[in-house]
Structure prediction request, 245 residues.
Amino acid sequence: MRFFRAYTLAVAYFVAATIILILTNWILRRWGVIMFWITPAIVLIYVYLESFLRILTTKPYEGSLRAKMLSSLKKFDVLGVKLHCSRSTLINAAASNWPPMRTIFFTDGALSKSNEKELMGALAHEAGHQKYYHSIKRVVWLLVLSTVLSVMNIYLVPRTGSLDLFVIVVAEAIIIAMVVCAICRQQELAADAFSTKHKHGQGLAGFLQKARADWQEHGYSFNVVRAFSGYPSMELRIKKIKHKQ
Ligand SMILES: [Zn+2]
Prediction:
C-alpha cells in the first residue's frame, strides 16, 4: 500500500513536472515578461491555500497543557498564535506564520506519545519558527529568486532553442529547490537554538529522538523525508542541541 502510494506520487510528480515544463516553455516564448509575476503569484496562492486548508482540517488543542503552552508563548513574546492538533498518529509538530492564521500544530501522535517536557521543548522550537517568521521569509526568498530568474529568462529565451530552454528551466528548478532546502536547514537549526536558549533543549532533544524512532517504526525512512524537505539530520540537530545546553 505504501509502495503503491509512493509509486503513484512519483508518477504524478513526473507528469505534473513535465506539463509545467512544457507550459513554462510555451509561456516563456510568448509572454516572457509575464513570468515576472506568474511564478511568484502561483507560489503565494499555493502556500496561503495550504496554510488555510491545514487550519480547516485540524481542531483547536484543548488538552491539559494548553494554559501552560500559552503562558510559555507569552514568555517567548510570541503573541497571537493559535494551538491546533491534527489527526496523524505520527509524532510531529509544525508552525504556520501567515497572518491571520498564525498557528502551531501538534499531531495526536505527538500529544499522546510525548511527555510534558518533550512537548514544551517542541513548542519552544515551533515558537522559534513563529518568532522569526520563517515560512514568510522562505516565500520572500523564493519570490526574490524567481524574479531574478524571470528577468534572466527574458534575456535568455529569445536567444535559445527548445532543447536549451528545456535545460535552462530544469536547471532553474534545481537551483530554486537547492536554495529553498538550504534555507529550510538553516531555519531548523535556528528554531532549535531558540528552544535551547529558553532552556527547553533537553525536552526538544527527547522529542526529536522519540519522533525519529516513531517514524522508523512506521516504516518511514527519515533520510527520504530529509532528501525532499531539506531537513538537517536528527543526529546533527540532537548533537548541536546537547552541545549548546
Ligand atoms: Zn522546525
